[in-house]
Design goal:
sulfotransferase activity; 5-stranded parallel sheet; alpha/beta; Sulfotransferase domain-containing protein; globular; transferase; single chain
């Protein structure tokens, strides 16, 4: 017995993490995943390219196709990953999964071909989520894709979809995206790869757009739970309990896996995400405030000027 109801199997419960990268979402997802009723999948939006086509590493450290968990998910969801046209899914993602299409998702506008393609695209996510829940025996699957348009596509697609909107101070996010960070996902023998870097103005625009598109879910009657990075790291235990309750999972007593300033992480089968998804063992949870000294006055002023309306909306001081 895995504790999953027939209703859960028919309508997979998915906690989608929205917002923008460098908002503390990877360690948050991993912390939520310490609950045995939760399975953390990482950024599923990248599964088609990075996992299936590029053969990058699972969070457990094995190549994606060598990971037993993901092999079973592929078998359960599709009869094997070889039956998934990953190149087709990447093409659909590039054409359909864009923030500029948000009004079309809401109104259902578009030709029959557009709607059929959306249905096909969403159905592959539904199959991944459902299979992951079946294989793991969990009740809730976490997708930390943060692709702002994706939850708009997934609404009404046979999912019990919940959205967690993670927000962090735009200046901190800008500083983080300006740093050079190694991507450890590549295969042995490959040249070292790095995560993308953005200018302050570019990331400020992305910060505005991602948050606005997630906020727009409320206009469709689907109100996300908002969690600020600063509140999460200041109270990890309370924040995790709040999110689990939002996902329909009651928290009773001390799990022993997370404390006021730390979390004990076991290996997780995340298909993509921040490099810390490979971290195992005790991890300190504390505010990363390096941006306060590291971000130049000029860049700080620029990012503040470009993002101040949303900074105020989310309770930050411009």
């Amino acid at each position: 017995m895995n504790g999953r109801s027939d209703e859960t199997a028919a309508r997979p419960r998915v906690l989608f993490i929205g917002g923008i990268g460098r908002s503390g979402t990877t360690v948050l997802e991993r912390s939520l995943g310490t609950d045995p009723r939760v399975v953390s999948l990482g950024e599923v939006t990248h599964l088609w390219q990075r996992s299936l086509l590029d053969g990058e590493l699972c969070g457990c450290g094995l190549a994606f196709r060598e990971c037993e968990f993901w092999r079973r998910v592929g078998d359960q969801g599709f009869g094997g990953w070889d039956r998934v046209d990953a190149a087709r899914l990447v093409d659909l993602k590039d054409r359909l999964d864009r923030s500029r299409h948000t009004p079309r998702y809401a109104t259902g506008a578009g030709a029959a071909k557009w709607r059929d393609d959306l249905q096909e695209y969403a159905d592959h996510y539904r199959r991944v989520y459902s299979a992951a829940l079946e294989v793991s025996g969990a009740q809730v699957a976490i997708d930390s894709s943060k692709q702002a348009s994706l939850p708009h596509i997934l609404l009404g697609q046979g999912l019990d979809l919940l959205v967690l909107h993670c927000v962090r101070d735009s200046r901190a996010v800008a500083y983080s995206w300006m740093q050079k960070v190694t991507r450890p996902e590549g295969r042995a023998g490959e040249e070292r790869q790095y995560m993308k870097q953005y200018s302050p103005a570019t990331i400020a625009g992305k910060w505005n757009l991602h948050n606005a598109v997630v906020d727009a879910l409320a206009l469709r009657g689907h109100r996300p739970l908002r969690l600020r990075y600063e509140d999460w790291v200041d109270d990890p235990v309370g924040s995790v309990a709040r999110v689990l309750a939002f996902a329909g999972l009651a928290v009773e007593g001390d799990s022993g896996r997370i404390g006021a300033t730390w979390v004990d992480l076991a290996p997780a089968h995340t298909c993509s995400g921040n490099p810390m998804r490979f971290t195992v063992g005790r991890v300190d949870i504390r505010r990363d405030q390096r941006w306060e000294q590291g971000l130049s006055r000029r860049d700080r002023t620029l990012v503040t000027a470009l993002t101040w309306p949303f900074l105020l909306r989310y309770g930050y001081r411009p």
